[in-house]
Amino acid sequence: MSFFSKLRERLNRSSSRLGEGLEAIVEEGGAVSAGDAPEPGPEVPQPAPQERPLRPDPMPAPTPAEVPGQAPPEWVPTPAETPQPEAAKPGMFGRLFGRAPGAAAEPVMRRVLDDEMLESLEELLIQSDMGVDTALRVTANLAQGRMGRRMSVEEIKAALASEIAAILDPVARPLPIYPKTPQVVLVVGVNGSGKTTTIGKLASQFRAAGKSVVIAAGDTFRAAAVDQLKVWGERAGVPVLTAPEGSDPASLAFDAMTKAQAEGADLLMIDTAGRLQNRADLMEELAKIVRVIRKKDPDAPHNTLLVLDATTGQNALSQVETFRKLADVSGLVMTKLDGTARGGVLVALADKFGLPIHAIGVGEQIDDLAPFDPEDFARALVGAKAA
Fold it and tell me: Nearest 5°: CA angle at 220, between 217 and 222?
């Protein structure tokens, strides 16, 4: 299964909410488009029964209406009654879409895109945690060149996906890899955001790509986080450096930097605490880690990743603001998109902060974390068909 298929399948809460909402909006003030439904033709008078020609077979075969369990179709003249012209060959688009020449399209519900409909779309996007400002921006862009046009649900989905992808495209960037080694990646985020799991998955993927990786379990106040990193390290064949519970994280980071340099490792990934109850203590802890590793490399850390939990919705915005003050955040990773109906918050983050989004996660397996693709995400979010 491709990651897009997995993403769309697991984003079903967001896409279902948006899809159902769009259908309701179109149905509320829409109508079947005249161009999509076949127009009723003039009534053709049928000959009297006694004037119909007799069939050559005195015992005709039973009609479909007489066959048990089979519904009667519309009456169609038999070959004996009507000469059969040579069947027309379907054109290119007919072959592509499996439609015979002259066949009418199925009726499609459409609604005129007007101010009332735009307001309904804005409310729907806000409910998906896209935020007021971003929802207004998306609908305003959607309206350009489309006002007064009769649009179906699928057309609105495609248009929304296009506008959302336009906001996301500038921030969709993979985690940069630098030639200088070891490249230090400092990972921050609140406890429970999926920070530890993300480190394990990234380490495993880098290891599979031929990179040598060292992990430092810097959240020394949570034994569970250390144990979880050990498990991921064993899976990926990556060493995990630990320290006794309650130890100084900066000291552990220094030892990990020394080991990474001695072994010629390509990457050093440092986990950190995520306690926001006392921001002053956390800020000092992060600042101390940075001071210590810069004794080994003045340019470290080369990346500071903020891991966000999609299920927190609009709280993710305040977390970005907080951690940008605590650390020099260089990029984002969004996790747990499979467990929320609030996937629109990722669009709000891109629109408000413009920070690179490196990867998104939709599950617990190693391949459930993948580089961020804005078009795939936008289509999956609104429930649009694959391109």
Answer: 100
Q: How far apart are CA 345 and CA 126, in angstroms?
A: 9
DSSP annotation of 78: -
Asked if 312 and 276 count as a contact pair (C-beta separation under 8 A), the reply is no
Q: How far apart (Å, rounded) are the C-alpha atoms in residues 370 and 175?
A: 11
- Contact between residue 249 and residue 218 where contact means Cβ atoms under 8 Å apart: yes
Give the span between the Cα atoms of 342 and 325, in whole angstroms: 25
Over 50: is that where the pLDDT of 72 sits? no
Number of residues in the chain: 387
Q: Which amino acid is at 18?
A: L
Q: How far apart are CA 236 and CA 204, in angstroms?
A: 5
Query: Cα(6)–Cα(171) distance, rounded to whole angstroms?
Result: 22
Cα separations in angstroms, 86 against 24, 83, 91: 45, 10, 15
Find all residues with CB under 8 Å of 173, minimum gap 6, and list them: 331, 356, 357, 358
pLDDT digits (tens, 9 = 90+) for 208-228: 999 999 999 999 988 888 999
Contacts of 150 (CB under 8 A, 6+ apart): 33, 110, 111, 112, 113
Q: Provide the whole-model pTM.
A: 0.78
Beta bridge partners of 268: 184, 214
80-92 residues labelled b (16+ CB within 10 A) or e (exposed): eeeeeeeeeebee
What is the Cα–Cα distance from 39 to 46, expressed in whole angstroms? 20
What is the distance between the terminal CA atoms of the chain, rounded to a whole angstrom? 16
Q: Which of 6, 372, 382, 360 is nearest to 168 (CA)?
A: 372
